[in-house]
């Protein structure tokens, strides 16, 4: 167990609904990343935080996606007005900047939009 | 743009033989190259990584080589075993992000 946790592990929703996922990184890790992975593809970068600051957001990311890390610890990823194309595995990873660049992934949240 | 190319997409090797997966990257500033193994339904797990100041790194049956001039890096698995069957991803650091290749599905044949 790497220590990164995500909740929920699975989410089924209807098109048009909003969903929110949570990631709890390893406690001393100050940088947190969100990725999306579809079947047969590698993880695709979405956004990342250093402490509570969101430093970059992928150009590919729709405005329907928003992420927060209000206290520099856990993070949430919200998808508004979900579409079938949002169905994917959403992965969170964290690192302790300045110590190592190794990203440790959480177990992921698998989203299915019907 | 930011890009990591990986090949082959699928690789089948006889148990006990070696497997080689190759990747190229586009950003000459990349300096960190991790490799991840992902089994079905599970999270990616780091298996080995290499930094740009090193040309080769080995950990038991796994080795990674890096050619910064050519912007190539490779994963070598020797004496393959059934439990090596999985999808392997190469990745490169680009502007504080990790960009992944599309993966190689490795099948170990009995």
Question: Could you outline the blueprint of secondary structure elements for this entry?
Answer:
The complex is a heterodimer of chains A (114) and B (110).
Chain A lengths: L4 E3 L2 E4 L5 E6 L6 E7 L6 E7 L2 E5 L7 E4 L6 E5 L8 E8 L8 E2 L3 E5 L1
Parallel strand pairs in A: 2-11
Antiparallel strand pairs in A: 1-3, 3-8, 4-5, 4-9, 5-6, 7-8, 9-10, 9-11
Chain B lengths: L3 E4 L2 E5 L4 E7 L6 E7 L6 E7 L4 E4 L2 E6 L4 E6 L8 E9 L2 E4 L3 E6 L1
Parallel strand pairs in B: 2-11
Antiparallel strand pairs in B: 1-3, 3-8, 4-5, 4-9, 6-7, 7-8, 9-10, 9-11
The N- to C-terminal Cα distance of chain B equals 41 Å
Query: Largest interface by residue count?
Result: A-B, 21 and 21 residues
The CA-CA distance between the termini of chain A, in Å, is: 31 Å
Q: Spans of chain B with pLDDT under 50 lasting ≥5 residues?
A: none
Low-confidence stretches of chain A: none
Secondary structure: number of strands of chain A: 11
Q: In which range does the helix fraction of chain B lie?
A: under 10%
Instruction: Report the total helices of chain B.
Output: 0
Helix-strand makeup class of chain B: mainly beta
**Average pLDDT metric of chain B:** 93
Q: How many extended strands of chain B?
A: 11
Q: What proportion of the residues of chain A form beta strands (DSSP E)?
A: over 45%
Q: What is the H/E order of chain B?
A: EEEEEEEEEEE
Order of helices and strands of chain A: EEEEEEEEEEE
Structure commentary:
The complex is a heterodimer of chains A (114) and B (110). Chain A has 114 residues and is mainly β. Chain A has no helices and eleven strands. In chain A, strands 2, 4, 5, 6, 9, 10 and 11 form a seven-stranded mixed beta sheet that branches. Chain A has a four-stranded antiparallel beta sheet with strand order 1-3-8-7, with no helix packed on it. Chain B is mostly beta strands. The relative contact order of chain B is 0.34. Chains A and B meet through strand 5 and strand 10 of A and strand 5, strand 9 and strand 10 of B.
């Amino acid at each position: 167990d790497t220590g990164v946790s995500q909740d929920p592990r699975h989410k089924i929703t209807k098109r048009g609904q909003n969903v929110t996922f949570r990631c709890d990184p390893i406690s001393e890790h100050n940088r947190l990343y969100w990725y999306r992975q579809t079947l047969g593809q590698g993880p695709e970068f979405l956004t990342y935080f250093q402490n509570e600051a969101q430093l970059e957001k992928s150009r590919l990311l729709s405005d329907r996606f928003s992420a927060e890390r209000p206290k520099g610890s856990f993070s949430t990823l919200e998808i508004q007005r979900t579409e079938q194309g949002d169905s994917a595995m959403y992965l969170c990873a964290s690192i302790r900047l300045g110590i190592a660049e190794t990203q440790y992934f959480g177990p992921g949240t698998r989203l299915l939009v019907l | 743009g930011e890009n990591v190319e990986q090949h082959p997409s699928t690789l089948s090797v006889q148990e006990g033989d070696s497997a080689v997966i190759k990747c190229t990257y586009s950003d000459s500033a990349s300096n960190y190259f991790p490799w991840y193994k992902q089994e079905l339904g599970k999270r990616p797990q780091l298996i080995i990584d290499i930094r740009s100041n090193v040309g080769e790194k080995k950990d038991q049956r796994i080795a990674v080589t890096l050619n910064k001039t050519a912007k190539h890096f490779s994963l070598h698995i020797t004496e393959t075993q059934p439990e090596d069957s999985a999808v392997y991803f190469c990745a490169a650091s680009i502007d504080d992000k990790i960009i992944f290749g599309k993966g190689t599905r490795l099948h170990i044949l009995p």
